[in-house]
Amino acid sequence: MDTHRRLILKATLAAIATALAGAGMIVPRAAHASWPREAFEAETLSGAMERLFGVAEAPEGAVTLDARDVADNAALFPVTVETTLPGVTSIAILAAGNARPLVAHFRIHEDVDPYIHARIKLAQTTDVIAIVEAGGRLYSTRKRVTVTRGGCEG
Amino acid sequence: MSSIRIQAKTEGDTVTVRAMITHTMETGRRKLPDGSLIPAHYIREVRAMTNGRVVFDADWGPGISRNPLLIFRYRGGKAGDALTLSWTDSEGGSDHIETRVG
User: Fold this and answer.
1) Would you state the pLDDT for residue A27?
2) Do A117 and B71 make contact, defined as CB atoms within 8 angstroms?
3) ipTM score of complex
4) Which pLDDT score is estimated for A26?
5) Which of A100, A95, A86, A77 has its CA nearest to residue A131?
6) B23 touches chain A (CB under 8 A)
7) Percent of chain B scored above 90 by pLDDT?
């Protein structure tokens, strides 16, 4: 199945699961995969992307990543990701230079704002990448963050 | 004693939820002075629900900082709604809290 159709299928299944969950008919977690171990254990950015989204990279655009240029505390680095895209189904945060680049993946359900604030660990100066999945497509943005004092093993 | 402190506030049509979870979020890659590794222990799944709908649904790895703070926003809620937040971790631990939207 090509990637575009696979993403549409995943988004459709997620939408169905959300609708059923809203009707109180199922526990949402049962409708899709459990914790994606392989994606979280991937040791490269492209590997994490492949395991989570089925593609190694996503085109830049339409995603706002709000984060400082320099991490004073590499163990506690705040990031905010948001977008004005409609039909957002998920948001992911990755740190390319971490031993395990995938930091978090958030499923965005109906009537939930596509807005995420999180505090993450950075192992070293690296690109922080935000991925938005919307309408069956992927969008990304990245920002180089400098770690000044040591790093934090992630 | 709950590991979760949470506040859910309506701002117009939007409810903004701020939660802080007390959790070590240990990566499993840190070493003790004797060279041995501190075992991994981190939250993997976080979920919040209100009125039968999921409003927060996250998979986390150990790259999320210790004592995680999370902020999210959803529409269609109102003051007085019950909201539940729960988490499970890599060692089979879990916790949850219920709050009222203010």
Assistant:
1) 37
2) yes
3) 0.96
4) 34
5) A95
6) no
7) 96
